[in-house]
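Sample 1 of the test manifest.
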Amino acid sequence: MSGAKERRRRVEEMRQEQSRRRADAVRRRRMTMVGAPIAAVVLVLGVMVVIKLSGTGAPAEVPKAAAGSTVAKLTGVPAQTLIKAGPPPDGTRLLPVSGEPPLEQDGKPRILYLGAEYCPYCAAQRWPLIVALSRFGTFTGLQESRSSATDVFPNTATFTFRSASYASPYLAFTAVETQDAEGRPLQRLNDADAALVGKLNAPPYTPEESRGSIPFIDFGNRYLTTGASLSPQLFDGLDHAQIADRLADPADAIGKPVSGIANLMTAGICALTANQPADVCGDPVVKSLGEGLNGN
Amino acid sequence: MATDDPGQPARWVPPAGTVLALTGLAISIYLTIAHYTDPRTLACPDTGALDCAKVTTSAESMVLGLPVAVYGLLFFGAMALLNLPAAWRRQDVRLTVARLAAAGVGVVTVLYLVYVELFRVNAICLWCTGVHVVVFALFAVTLIGSSKTLVD
């Protein structure tokens, strides 16, 4: 009798043990099913953050927030000053683009800028570009920067678009700064824009030897500029506030060409926005330059 | 985590999933409205590294002609339906797999968007980060809730 009882007790213990093992196995499978994907996601996020913080980030010369008064002078050049400055220097032009569909975003014409912070020609070209775009919308996040200290026209004062955003009811603006002032990678064109730049920043729009050069600005696939429309030499030895001050004088050696080139860019933009806003596109200088563009 | 009902998720899972999906939906609606009106209206600090407008107006903010915020809206709408308590109660494996697949697609998309913010746009949008946190939490809740159905 006692032998039979002992057997039953052992069988019962074995059943309980098997049941416990099954429950443990199920619990482990559940933990794996939940834990492994979550751990994988956290790992990928962690790797990205570490690469960002340790790799290309933290450049030695970080652009600093622009002084409000300087930005105000740059983005608010009075209409009368621009009119008095007149057309751009001789030989400055927007190159007409043919055979391309309009470049748009959200149903608005889009302007694509490609440059780099080290590049002194980009540094020069940003001044009239910001003046022109500010007539159609508002910039936020513009930062003061300088071109490379070791390139030609070293330390040209300018503003980087790396953290800037632009809002306008008339047009969209995409800016890509590919490298910082020391030539380290910064931003990248998306694939579609890279293909577009590859096509337009090349002959017949530029000489073969200038293919791919910066700055490059595509005004809605209708006009483009390659290279600087004014020499960085003009800004030699000046800081941001000094240059901004001189924009108020339409006869100044800096104010006149910057405003004149901004007027030409404005005319090109007006051709994209169906001459809106009327007060900007109806300006006599802009109107006259626009007629010249149509004659291209 | 477990309940007495075999195959049923823990009691907290359905309401947690619903609340998270609705939170994500609300943020997506806000981002969509901001996209189509004025991105500068986003309540977000603008300190260079943190800049919502820069992210939401970047070229990468559009996919196939639609703002990413609209895809978020569709995603959270679908997740809100899949996370209704009635949907959780139905121990339909197809429903469980659909919920898991949607959560998986969501979290993979978030990884891509974080990559874009960090390495292409070089700015972080706090509202977008809020959405990313919600998607990740929804992914975790879905995994926890589905594990019992699929493993038991």
